[in-house]
Design a protein that fits this description.
By secondary structure, the chain is of the alpha+beta class. It has two domains: 7-89 and 204-217, no CATH class; 90-200, Gcn5-related N-acetyltransferase (GNAT) (Aminopeptidase, 3-Layer(aba) Sandwich). Helix content is 22%, strand content 29%. This is GNAT family N-acetyltransferase.
Length: 219
Amino acid sequence: MGEPHPLLTFFLDAAGGRFPPVDGRVTVLPPLPAGLECSVAFTGHAVVATALTDGAVHDQKPDGFGASLSPDFLRHLAGDNGWIGVIDATLTARGTGGSPRLQPLADADDHPRVRHARELRSNVTIHGDERGLITLADGLAGRRELSIELHYSHNDSRGHGRSLLTDALSLVPEGEPVFAAVSPGNARSLRAFLACGFTPIGSEVVLRPERESPTANLR
């Protein structure tokens, strides 16, 4: 295995309550593996992982107070034809360990949640039961990351999201940080994560750039 991406330190520090300085600045890091890049916002400080030079980033005048997630800046990072993901809230909790309370699922490879996880993450495993499924994977910058999808309708699934997330934390060793990216507009999901002890630490967007002359912007 190679060295961990330096963005991982920011996530692990934030999970431990240690955040970048609230100075309005933007830290520029190398791009992520597999052709991905990202812009991550903490309180008063942003971190951008990209193949663009520091100058090409700062010329667009991003800042740590929200401009690092503006549509114009994200399009600059991605290029005219690059893919830009949605802006998600970044949440973290700690694994509870013990005996796993969810079993692996062997027949969910075609599920949209699983396909999406495998497009952006590695070492994806799938767990679940009649309530829904959980993906657990190595996500952004190598952090441990989970996502959830319920099987039932709104009327049938009240409380199932919280119970499924609680059980999912047993899949992570006790005390180990685990992260989730949740759309702020998905208020029901966000409430479930918060109720299960997840704490917001920032926001993020993942990109897959396509630039006309990528070699011209490499460090």
